[in-house]
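pls design
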C-alpha cells in the first residue's frame, strides 16, 4: 500500500502540463469515437421518439419530458442490457413518470417500440 507522500507525488506528476497533453493526445481518438457514437444513438432515439409521439398526438410541449424518460430508459438499457432486472427497473421508471403526469400508454409504447423492453409479468 502506498504512503501519503507517494500518493501526493503520483498525483502531482499527473498534473504536469506536458503529461496532461500527452494523455489527451493519446486518448483523443477514442474520446471522439465514443462521443460520435453517443450523438448518433441520441439522434436515432430522438427521431424515433418524435414519430411515436406524433402518432400518439402528444402535445409538442410534452416532448421534452418524454425525451427525458426515453434517455433514462436508454441509460438503464445500456447499463443492464436486458433481463428481468432491466424490466423491473424500467417498470419503476414508468411508474415514476406516470406519477409526474405523463400518459402510461405512451410511456409503455416508448418502452416497447423504441427499446423492445416488454412489460413486467404479473407476480
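designed seq:
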Amino acid at each position: 500500500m502506498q504512503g501519503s507522500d507517494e500518493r501526493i507525488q503520483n498525483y502531482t506528476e499527473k498534473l504536469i502540463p506536458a503529461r496532461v497533453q500527452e494523455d489527451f493526445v493519446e486518448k483523443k481518438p477514442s474520446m471522439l469515437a465514443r462521443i460520435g457514437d453517443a450523438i448518433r444513438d441520441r439522434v436515432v432515439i430522438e427521431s424515433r421518439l418524435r414519430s411515436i409521439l406524433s402518432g400518439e398526438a402528444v402535445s409538442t410541449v410534452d416532448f421534452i419530458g418524454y425525451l427525458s424518460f426515453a434517455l433514462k430508459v436508454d441509460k438503464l438499457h445500456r447499463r443492464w442490457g436486458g433481463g428481468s432486472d432491466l424490466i423491473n427497473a424500467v417498470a419503476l421508471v414508468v411508474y415514476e413518470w406516470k406519477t409526474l403526469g405523463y400518459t402510461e400508454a405512451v410511456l409503455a409504447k416508448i418502452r416497447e417500440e423504441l427499446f423492445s423492453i416488454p412489460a413486467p409479468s404479473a407476480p
